[in-house]
Specification:
mainly alpha, 6 helices, 79% helix
């Protein structure tokens, strides 16, 4: 049996929640400030990226490959329905987080290059 992929730490989970909130905020100075804080949290960003990399290594590259792999994984099938759903939700949130993190980094870089 393959080694389980470690879940996100409470800090990285909280980071993901903050990221979703900031992503939904309207543009403005508060969103920029919060985005800067998120981008600066390199430990959480790295943990999210490692989690995604673990999914890719186990199931294959791409959302569809990961979804299919998880559906067929005997280790997940042995979990309760609630446990499976929690793991699948986490994988989906992380899958969507990676492009959002990249967008946030790019946004901050553009803002830093733009003269006031």
């Amino acid at each position: 049996m393959r080694k389980p992929i470690p879940d996100l730490s409470p800090e990285a989970s909280a980071y993901m929640e903050r990221m979703v909130q900031v992503h939904k905020m309207p543009s403005g100075p508060e969103k920029e400030d919060r985005t800067r804080l998120l981008v600066a949290d390199t430990a959480s960003v790295q943990e999210v990226v490692r989690f995604r990399q673990g999914l890719i290594e186990r199931y294959g590259k791409g959302d569809e490959a990961i979804r299919k792999g998880m559906d067929q994984d005997p280790a997940l099938k042995s979990q309760s329905a609630l446990g499976r759903k929690r793991i699948q939700n986490r994988a989906e949130v992380v899958a969507h987080a990676i492009p959002v993190i990249s967008q946030m980094r790019e946004q901050i870089q553009r803002l830093d290059r733009t003269p006031d």
